[in-house]
């Protein structure tokens, strides 16, 4: 399967906690083209994991729509979602052990992960081949307890790509790894992206990881706060015409500041009205 595109429109998610509600996402419009590799950045609690869960169909949004390929994930019936996650969307949760059967070998983990896709009639690569793709061929039959933290994370990548999904979602795949292991995991994800055209979205807090990604999207307070392209930072106009100010402009333009927006030739100027 080649890559799947993502489209979200007006995505809102509210958690209903016991005594209060939390608005985790407040209107996210995100487009990711098939075959892109995108990093999701943002401070803790900004809504990154919530967005990943909505993309994977693990959560249903309070409002708005999520499309993955031709499927409206936000409206899909539970059986369709099960099938999507078995065959088309690979989800890697934060923490390698949450993705692995700890008493099975990497080979058995991949075999087990492939079962739902096989039952759905998919022709799949041999587990040894999947492990070789992430550089773990030699560890196929070793107990997981013998693997390094980086090796475990690579095994989790192998499990997530075991049915050759068109979309791979990874929540902090490189956190708590040393630089060498981090680079290996990143290289494995980039390899999958490049070789199979798999669309990859990964959450990261690591500026070194963000720097090497072709595109980053920063989530701030449940909204898209900006984008990075090859290290260059941009603000993004939302579908309803709002423009979140980048961090450096927020200091000089505090809430409530009146600004004039002037067109000057082919660009725009924002001029604050000084009292
Ligand atoms: N199950 C839940 N019930 C109530 N509130 C929640 C729940 N899960 C997340 N939240 C809240 O929603 C907001 C967004 O959380 P989310 O985990 O999506 O952020 P994040 O950017 O992934 O954070 P981190 O980088 O720390 O993982 C936070 O205010 C969080 O406290």
From TrEMBL:
One of its GO terms (cellular component) is plasma membrane. SUPFAM superfamilies: P-loop containing nucleoside triphosphate hydrolases (SSF52540). Residues 6-246 form the ABC transporter domain. Coiled coil: none annotated. One of its GO terms (molecular function) is ATP binding. It comes from the Bacteria. Keywords: ATP-binding, Lipoprotein, Nucleotide-binding. The keyword Amino-acid biosynthesis does not apply. The keyword Nucleotidyltransferase does not apply. This is ABC transporter ATP-binding protein. The lineage of its organism: Bacteria, Bacillati, Actinomycetota, Actinomycetes, Propionibacteriales.
């Amino acid at each position: 399967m080649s890559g799947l595109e993502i489209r979200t429109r007006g995505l809102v998610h509210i958690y209903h906690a016991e005594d209060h509600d939390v608005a985790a996402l407040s209107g996210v419009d995100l487009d990711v083209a098939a075959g892109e590799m995108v990093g999701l950045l943002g401070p803790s609690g900004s809504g990154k994991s919530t967005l990943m869960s909505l993309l994977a169909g693990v959560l249903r949004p309070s409002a708005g729509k999520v499309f993955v390929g031709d499927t409206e994930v936000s409206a899909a019936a539970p059986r369709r979602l099960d099938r999507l996650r078995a065959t088309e969307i690979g989800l890697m949760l934060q923490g390698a052990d949450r993705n692995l059967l700890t008493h099975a070998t990497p080979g058995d983990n991949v075999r087990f992960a492939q079962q739902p896709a096989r039952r759905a009639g998919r022709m799949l690569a041999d587990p040894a081949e999947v492990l070789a793709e992430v550089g773990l061929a030699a560890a196929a039959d070793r107990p997981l307890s013998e693997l390094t933290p980086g090796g475990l994370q690579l095994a989790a990548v192998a499990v997530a790509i075991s049915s050759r999904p068109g979309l791979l979602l990874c929540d902090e795949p490189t956190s708590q790894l040393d630089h060498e292991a981090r680079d290996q995991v990143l290289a494995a994800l980039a390899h999958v992206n490049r070789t199979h055209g798999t669309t990859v979205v990964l959450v990261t807090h690591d500026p070194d990881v963000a720097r090497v990604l072709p595109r980053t999207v920063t989530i701030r307070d449940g909204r898209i706060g900006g984008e990075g392209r090859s290290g260059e930072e941009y603000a993004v106009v939302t579908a309803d015409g709002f423009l979140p100010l980048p961090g450096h402009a927020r200091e000089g333009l505090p809430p409530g500041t009146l600004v004039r927006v002037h067109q000057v030739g082919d660009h725009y100027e924002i001029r604050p009205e000084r009292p």
